[in-house]
Design a protein that fits this description.
It contains 14 helices and twelve strands. It has 361 residues and is α/β, with parallel strands linked by helices. The protein has a six-stranded parallel beta sheet with strand order 2-1-3-4-5-11, sandwiched between helices. The N and C termini lie far apart (92 Å).
Length: 361
């Protein structure tokens, strides 16, 4: 095969800004102004864009911002990319960041503190101007977050590990109160099924406290379904299933049968309902069940699940707006951002049974 035969396989040289300037008959400075959105005459802009199209030239804005020592990049760190709770938050955060002239990239910590720190440090290497973080509920990175928060804007979402920080979250305490008060209107003594997350997760701690305080106001003794050794770990659905299944087989369940169950999350409620059905009980009739978060599957369960809806779109939008404000106004960094968004109780068939509040045990 001749040398010429190989030439068709040679890569085409990547066009440069100088090539655009030469083809358009304009200076490199003028081309740069057009590509960076600075004001120029419409005729000049058209010449530059036409040249870019002919050359298949795509501006590398990331390289340009690095060269200038600046960035329009924000980082978003979540604990799970498979958790449907984060989907709407990420989607709205991307939309809001774009509308405000920023790029948003997200990574997952997989609930691992060391991975969380590596991800955050990676965003620092990319010269991100701010971080939005759903943190791993662990004390391991407390010192790191304190130090980083002094260097750049860090906005926590859903829950926080630091006492003094910028936070955008649902009012988890109020949501748990709404759920428990709703169940108290229908059942004598609602039980509480907590989470696989530790109480260092401020959201989970607030939900548990909301349940406790609502029960105290009603003059009722709280009833916690405690996981056995075998049910402490695993995903949320498995945790809910195994914990309820174990309780239903105990002598206590015969003395104190479940009438209603307040679950820390919808995923836990899903597992709990499966265990009830296997035990011959009908959720929504024999045992009322409520969850928290209003995830996409909740309205499609049998029966559809009563839950506390979190304003996830508002969380994503508000967190980005707060981060942008902290980036663009250095004076704002002296004021702590603390936004608690109102939850909403969504009543469905899982709590529309025929149990009476007057029943005793």
């Amino acid at each position: 095969m001749s040398i010429n035969a190989y030439s068709s396989f040679m890569p085409t040289p990547t066009p440069t800004m100088e090539d655009v300037a030469e083809l358009s008959g304009l200076s490199r400075v003028t081309v740069s102004k057009v590509l960076n959105g600075h004001g120029v005459r419409a005729k000049t802009r058209t010449r530059v864009l036409d040249a870019c199209q002919k050359l298949n030239f795509v501006a590398n804005h990331h390289a340009a911002t690095l060269a200038r020592g600046g960035s329009r990049l924000m980082g978003l760190v979540v604990t799970s990319i498979t958790d449907p709770f984060y989907g709407k938050i990420i989607e709205q955060a991307e939309r809001t960041a774009s509308s405000l002239g920023f790029d948003l990239a997200y990574r997952c910590s997989y609930s691992d503190a060391q991975q969380e720190r590596r991800v955050a440090e990676g965003f620092l290497g990319l010269k991100a101007v701010a971080l939005i973080v759903s943190p791993v509920p662990s004390d391991e990175n407390l010192s790191f977050w304190r130090t980083l928060s002094g260097q750049m804007p860090v906005v926590f979402i859903d829950h926080a590990t630091l006492r003094s920080c910028h936070l955008v979250a649902t009012d988890h305490y109020a949501g748990a109160c709404l759920m428990t008060e709703h169940l108290l209107q229908l059942a004598f003594r609602p039980a509480y099924l907590g989470s696989t997350e530790p109480l260092t997760n401020s959201a989970i701690a607030a939900r548990q406290q909301g349940y406790l305080d609502a029960m105290e106001r009603a003059g009722k003794e709280p009833l916690f379904l405690l996981p056995s050794t075998e049910t402490e770990h695993g995903d949320s659905e498995q945790f809910g299933y195994a914990t309820v299944k174990a309780y239903l087989l105990t002598p206590e369940a015969r003395i104190t049968p479940l009438s209603a169950l307040a679950c820390a999350t919808d995923a836990i409620a899903l597992g709990a309902m499966t265990a009830l059905v296997e035990h011959g009980l009908v959720p929504g009739r024999d045992v009322l069940v409520a969850g928290h978060d209003d995830l996409s599957f909740s309205s499609f369960l049998t029966p559809p699940l009563t839950t506390v809806r979190q304003p996830r779109v508002a969380i994503g939008e508000t967190a980005v707006q707060a981060a942008v404000n902290l980036v663009t106004d250095p004076r704002a960094r002296k004021r702590r951002v603390s936004v608690k968004l109102a939850p909403e109780l969504i009543v469905r068939a899982s709590t529309q049974g025929l149990l009476l509040k007057s029943q005793t045990r």
